[in-house]
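WARN retry 2 of 3 for item q-0093 after timeout on previous attempt; input resubmitted unchanged.
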Amino acid sequence: MRVLHVLDHSAPLQSGYVSRTLGILRAQRGLGIDPVALTSPRHGAEAGPPVDPVEEVADFAFYRTPAPARALPGLGFRAEMAATARRLEQAVEELRPALIHAHSPVLNAFPAQAVAKRMNLPMVYEIRAFWEDAAVDRGTTTEGSIRYRLTRAMETRAVRRAGHVFTICEGLRDDLLSRGVNPDHVSLAPNAIEPDRLPPLTEKDAGLVAELGLGEGPVIGFLGSFYHYEGLHLLIDAFPAIRDRWPTARLLFVGGGPEDAALRERAAPLGDAALFTGRVGPEEVRRYYSAVDLLVYPRLKMRLTDLVTPLKPLEAMAMARAFIASDVGGHRELVQDGVTGRLFRSDDPNALAAAALDALDPAQQAQNAAMTAPALDFVRTTRSWSAVAERYLPVYERLTVQRLERAESVAAE
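OK item q-0093 returned
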């Protein structure tokens, strides 16, 4: 079965969105599915205009959509969707997939639904976050605004028109059900990791520690994308209290994003105690994880973080790294406090500092070690991409069979 995925952006860009996509594609290939992918014009906005109409990245083919001509004010989103639809129709004609699998934002859902209807193909829609909530975090709208309500209505319409819907967590699914969506219409395909690619770390990369000048530590860090909702400014604010107990502690930020400049400015008074490496290649990530004694995930409490589960705590669990995370809904769905990780009160740098000091306390190291076994069991048994990818199969099969039955019915008439 060939499945055509419709994406906002993809590798070689780096983001949690890309990590999830590659995990799904690799796992589906392992199950005997032939996954191919198409990216919207938004990929080009990040990576630059596509040089080739089809790009091979990470051993997968990505069909690129060129940016549409400049549209009149207020018509930009419509132009993007039209461009995606045109490119998708070309890809369908060439690839002849059995099914289209569109991934949020909703700007991908409508073109996929239109093309699927024209080409008589089944279509599923996967929601990784609600577009309207992400816009609130970016500051481009406010909760309850006209734009917010319009986008929410678009999402609901796309959900009702899809052959089936997947969400990455219970929070998103519950929200859809509160809108009156049939529970049988929505399934979970949660965030996961690839255990074979992220085995437990047993020692630090001494060469990297020396190269970065991290000293004796402890090293407290974050690896990922720098968005406002991640609450990384709270980690910077909490760090002086941590340093009062651990004078040689260092703060390590690995990654980049919209908050990069603001975070560097906020951390400037810490001098060389705070280090920003910029983004690193996927092949280097494990080395940087090994250099961190305590990972911190201080997500702010808001609708977005209460509904959506992140990937990073799962990576920490897989690699047997100690971590603390704020008690927002997305983290509570992943982490059993005191069993697979530690949670602290969100939006509170004092609570963050207290949790960090507790986790770093030499007397707590035995408990840290005890949490690695249930955490590893959790990610290996229920949060591996191979296990998640199997959740798609019954839906794919049901929709493709229904399509054949409809075709046979029409032919019989």
